[in-house]
Amino acid sequence: MRHKTINVPRVQLPKLPWRGFLAGCFLIFFFIGILAANWVGRDKLIQYGMLNEYYVGQLAYMEFEAGAYFIFLLKRRLRVFALAALLVYTRFGILMLAGVIGWHAFSLGYLFVNALVSMKFQGMVIVLLSIFPQAICYAAAYFGLGKILFRKSVENAMPNKNVWQNPRLFLLLSALCCMAAGIWLEGYVNPVLLRMYIRRM
Fold it and tell me: How confident is the model over 119-135, as pLDDT tens digits?
């Protein structure tokens, strides 16, 4: 008597929507930062927060050495980026990437509330200027690390494999270039834009 084989249908698990995951981390921690600032309270934000008219006014006329500031940013930003770039090839990469994005989102949400309480609309503009234009390059750098981490159609997205036949290496080098450009913009361009706006307030 022959036994009939039962064909069990294969259930394909949905792939992790990594763009949505990164965006979700940003939004969640952004709102946590807003809640934390509201929990601190208006009086403490005005008294101890850095975003008030006195401290902002000091930025407009203080002596600023762009070279030293650039070196400081280079050491600080590349240290975190290098650790994230190493961990994206391990199982801990997702925690590292979520932590980096979450910290920046939390800080931004907290600063938005601080600026709104202390300086109203002008404070919001100052916060936006403080992250422009380097935030575009930083976002592109960590986006590249996210693409390496989740390995979502990396091989198909790179038809030209002349960069040592390794698309992930291309993404890593591109992320490093974006990070270096962001640090340069933050060190030399962003302070000029920020001080120009503060002096016209």
Answer: 888 888 889 999 999 99
